[in-house]
Design goal:
Helix content is about 45%, strand content about 10%. Helix 6 packs across helix 17 and helix 9 packs antiparallel against helix 10. The protein has one domain: Cytochrome p450. The chain has about 400 residues and is an alpha+beta fold. The protein is globular. Bound molecules: protoporphyrin IX containing FE. Protoporphyrin IX containing FE binds next to helix 12, helix 13 and helix 17.
């Protein structure tokens, strides 16, 4: 069977995309020093038990790989455990409400049309540069209140942050070490820039998410300026490249499944299910990391305390114990308990926004382009790290 991954040359490190299942559900990769877990129930057990499987992986990584992260992760929810994590999420929920997201619908649609106007009539479009990258980054920047005139500057920094191969290893090569250092320096620049804006909002509030984050209060407590800046930074980084991947991946899936494409074009109410299946089938963030807080046993395998686990949610989403015919793209799956947005206390804050952007952008694309086929002469390219699955470029023929 030629899988979509084989056809487009996605490398074998994303074994789950090639229909390969390792013999063991839990195994140690001697080269990287990482434990790997790839089963669905095992992954759920980890994500739903933050006391045993900590998100503060930078602590272990810094010690083992001898890297100094400085204050890079202070205030970053992705690296936090309860009780601080619970406090931060409660504060952020005050600012990032379902209404905040729902109110964005007309703006997202207007932006999608505006971006696509620029390529209307073209025989082929490169989806990422035309729409899939632009749309989410503009939405999140506008939401935060970052001035449009400064957008290109930070876009440049973000692109560089994602440029490296991004492989995690407790025995980093010199090249990987250099990439980490460059990434940290760029992230610090981005955070300083946002710190300036957050500071300014304290004195001059505006109608934006940065102001709401600065003003959010729970039990008389507010976020510090650094916490606001770090959080805004996480939103900027997590909030656009992921949705870019979702849009590109979904079009790849529709190209591979013309039957689904035809059904969807005839009945757009299928879109939410297509998006959920895309998140399962080509999971954008395919690996999460956790640190063991004690000796644990998973699927009969003992893992000692203070070890780093690579939780392969992309592979869990292809676990045949949970998903029938996991290598089929099937939007009729019901239920579809994919883990594309994670699970438990760290469940993606931006899931409603990502789903909304996905639905609006895909709907408008299908409406404006009766044909969208992958250009076989310009095959898609992919982000290099196996921790992510997503197109870097995707050229589509429009007739
Ligand atoms: C298709 C798009 C997206 C995917 C696949 C995705 C995936 C994920 C996953 C798997 C996690 C869990 C991390 C963990 O457990 O360690 C997560 C967390 C997070 N996501 Fe997303 N995400 C997407 C879009 C967004 C957007 C649009 C935003 C912001 C606007 C966002 C902001 C966040 C934040 C702040 C967290 C950290 C939550 C916490 O640690 O409590 N994400 N995301």
């Amino acid at each position: 069977m030629t899988t979509l991954a084989t056809k487009w040359g996605l490398d074998e490190s994303r074994f789950w995309l090639h229909g390969n299942t390792p013999d063991e559900i839990v195994w140690l990769d001697e080269a990287s020093g990482l434990w790997n877990v790839h089963g669905h129930p095992e992954t759920l057990a980890i994500l739903e038990d933050p006391a045993t499987y900590s998100s503060n992986t930078a602590r272990l990584y810094a010690a083992e790989a001898d890297v100094d992260f400085g204050d890079a992760f202070d205030g970053n929810p992705v690296q936090m455990d309860p009780p601080f994590h619970s406090k931060l999420r409660r504060l952020v929920n005050r600012a990032f409400t379902p209404k905040t997201v729902a109110d964005l619908e007309p703006r997202i649609a207007a932006l999608a049309h505006e971006l696509l106007d620029a390529v209307a009539g073209d025989d082929r479009i490169e989806l990422v540069s035309a729409l899939a990258y632009q749309l989410p980054v503009i939405v999140i920047a506008e939401l935060l209140g970052v001035p449009a005139s400064e957008r290109d500057m930070f876009k440049g920094w973000v692109e560089k942050i994602y440029d490296g191969d991004g492989e995690v290893s407790l025995n980093p090569t010199e090249e990987q070490r250099r990439e980490i250092e460059e990434g940290l320096a760029l992230a610090a620049k981005l955070r300083d820039y946002l710190r300036g804006h957050a500071e300014e909002r304290r004195h001059t509030p505006r109608e934006d998410l940065l102001t709401q984050l600065v003003e959010a209060e729970v039990d008389g407590q507010r976020l510090t300026t650094t916490e606001v800046a770090t959080f805004a930074n996480v939103l900027l980084l997590a909030g656009h490249i992921t949705t870019t991947m979702l849009l590109g991946n979904t079009l790849l899936c529709l190209d591979a499944e013309p039957g689904v494409d035809a059904r969807l074009r005839a009945d757009r109410s299928l879109l939410p299910a297509v998006i959920e299946e895309s998140l399962r089938y080509l999971t954008p963030i395919s690996t999460l990391y956790r640190a063991t807080m004690g000796d644990v046993e998973i699927a009969g395998q003992r893992i000692p305390k203070d070890r780093l686990i690579a939780v392969r949610i992309g592979a869990a989403n292809r676990d045949e114990r949970v998903f029938e015919r996991p290598d089929m793209f099937d939007p009729d799956r019901s239920p579809n308990p994919h883990l594309g947005f994670g699970r438990g206390i760290h469940f993606c804050i931006g899931a409603p926004l990502a789903r909304l952007e996905g639905r609006i952008a895909l709907d408008i694309l299908l409406e404006r382009f009766p044909v969208l086929r992958v250009d076989e002469d310009n095959p898609p390219t992919f982000l290099p790290t196996a921790d992510m699955t997503g197109v870097k470029t995707l050229t589509l023929l429009t007739r």
